Amino acid sequence: MCLDQQNTDFVEYCISKGISYLDISADYQNLQKIEKLHCLAEQNNSTVVLSVGLAPGITNLLAQYVVSQMQNVESIDIFVLLGLGEKHGDHAYRWTFDNVDSNYTLKIHDEEKTLKSFTQPLKTNLSGSRNFYLFNFSDQHVLLNTLDVPKVQTRMAFDVEWFTELTAFLRKLRITRLFRNKKVQDFAIQSFKNFPMETDVFGVKVIAKDKNGNSKGVSVKGNNEGRITASVAVEIAVLVLNENLPKGVFHSHQLVKDIPVFLNKLKNYDSGFQLNL
Fold first, then answer.
1. Residues of the chain with CATH 3.40.50.720
2. Which CATH class is domain 9-52+227-276?
3. What was the pLDDT predicted at 77?
4. Using CA atoms, how far apart are residues 2 and 5, in angstroms rounded to an integer?
């Protein structure tokens, strides 16, 4: 499933028939509803896999990997780089526009905090040094619930640096509220489709820090986010079909046992896929 659904009727139908289900959508509220079907999936011998794709998906796997390589991880910072030249469906564009001007709640050190998207820049080197801004990807919520790490935050940037900084500036002026207007979205979507900017590059970087201040970073880079999302979905589907996986509702990082092997398989779909562990 690649669409955010209004309810869980379709998922429940699949589960009731013992059909395994993969979801590549990114809205945390929807994923939360599906998570509550864990017992139903267990009872009906169904495996439901969430967080399949780039973000969430590869971001979850990289976070799980760095946690497995360190002790007493205190924080995880996730950086997602998206290319403005990438072709998306209308729904994906609208989801991004809506979330540029959103506030969301995140539990940090067991305290609920309200965060504003496209604020609190953090600089790192991912296809060049650039600022990344807070964004409400579902991975951070999920990882806080599934990993023993008190602080996880996800930030994003576009490959066009001036466009990233302009968006952050408009957010500061509260002008980004216009991005929620359907007519504004329609105009912007048509512009992106007719006049793609820069490239279809994508990248993910995850940096974990322990209580002693030591850090470890891992990353992936490539082109064509849509293709890599499909590649992750294929490999997860193969896993579901060929492995004796537990029944219930899980996120991808809870089921992939050998993460380096899994990620290296993605090179079979794209020779330009770069993995740095």
1. 9-52+227-276
2. alpha beta
3. 98
4. 9
